[in-house]
Amino acid sequence: MENDDIVCNCMQITKEEIIEAIKAGNLKSIDEVGEETEAGTVCGTCHDDIEDIIKEVAG
User: Fold this and answer.
1) Residues 42, 35: Cα–Cα separation, whole Å
2) CB-based contacts of 39-45 (< 8 A; 24+ apart in sequence)
3) pLDDT above 90: residue 59
4) What local confidence, expressed as pLDDT, does residue 58 receive?
5) pLDDT: is 14 or 59 the higher one?
6) pLDDT at 26 (0 to 100)
7) Helix (H, G, I), strand (E, B) or coil at 14
8) CATH annotation of 6-58
9) Per-residue pLDDT tens over the stretch 12-29
10) What three-state secondary structure class fits 44?
11) Would the pTM of this model clear 0.90, i.e. be above it?
12) Any idea where the domains of the chain sit in the sequence?
């Protein structure tokens, strides 16, 4: 997945936006990413992708 790819189709949130939010807020969960970006807050099908991004960025 490229950084400019849409991760959350419902809210049109890109991977880069999620990465920036994780780094800026030291986010550790899907709920925290959702609160910060609204990604994953509608249908939830992107939760696995968000979790993968959190692991990739936060370790």
Assistant:
1) 12
2) 39/7, 39/8, 39/11, 39/13, 40/8, 41/10, 41/11, 42/8, 42/10, 42/11, 43/10, 45/9
3) no
4) 84
5) 14
6) 97
7) strand
8) 1.10.10.1100
9) 999 999 999 999 999 999
10) coil
11) yes
12) 6-58
Altogether, the residues listed in the chain come to a count of 59
Q: 56 is written with which tokens?
A: 């990739």
- Residue 43 is classified by DSSP as S
Nearby residues of 58 by Cβ (< 8 Å), 6 or more positions away: 22, 26, 27, 28
Which of 18, 54, 15 lies closest to 38, judged by CA? 18
Question: What is the average pLDDT value for the chain, to the nearest integer?
Answer: 97
Backbone torsions φ then ψ of 41, nearest 5 degrees: -100, -5
